[in-house]
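Action item from last week, closing it out:
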Amino acid sequence: MSNFVIDNIRPFGKFEINMSYLLLIAVDNVPPHLALVSNLKYFSLSSSGVKLGVDANVIMNSLKRKNVPTVLLPVAKQVVDDTIKNEYFNYKKLDQGHSCLNPIKSIFVTLDNNLLNCKYAFDLIEYMFKVNLFEEAFSLNYPEKDLELTKYGQKEIDLAIYNAAQLC
C-alpha cells in the first residue's frame, strides 16, 4: 500500500474564528507531532504535558520563528469546543504506547464513527480527505505543494516520545 499524499498545499494566512484545524507539526519528522486548533485556541498532548486552550497565534508565531515546517488541515465540520477541552483534560502527558493522535481521534470520532478504524495519523488523514472532512491544506515554513505521509508504527512513535522526553 502506497503512502498518502496531501496535495495542493497553499501558504497559510490566518486562523478563522469558528474553525478547527489539525496541525501536523515538524512534518520533516516521522512521525510529525499532531495538535488541534479550535476557535483560535491550541490543544496538544506531548511528552512534556498537555497544552489546553493556549492562544493559537502565539504558537504559530513560535513555529514561524523556529522555522518548524507545519501543515494545517481545516476541518470541514465544526468541532464542539467542550468536546476538545474535555478530551484533553483526561491526559497529563504522553507516555510510550500512546500518541498525540489519541485525543484527536476521540474528538474526530464525534464527526464520523468510522474513524475508530484508523490506527495512525496517516490513516486518519487519508480517510478524512476521502469523506471530505478535510478539503484543503495550508502550510507554514513548508515550501512544497505536496506532502507524502510516510507510514510508521508504534515503535517510531515510542522512539519520538523517548527522544522528546530527553530534551526536557
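Closing note: The CA atoms of residues 30 and 150 lie 7 Å apart.
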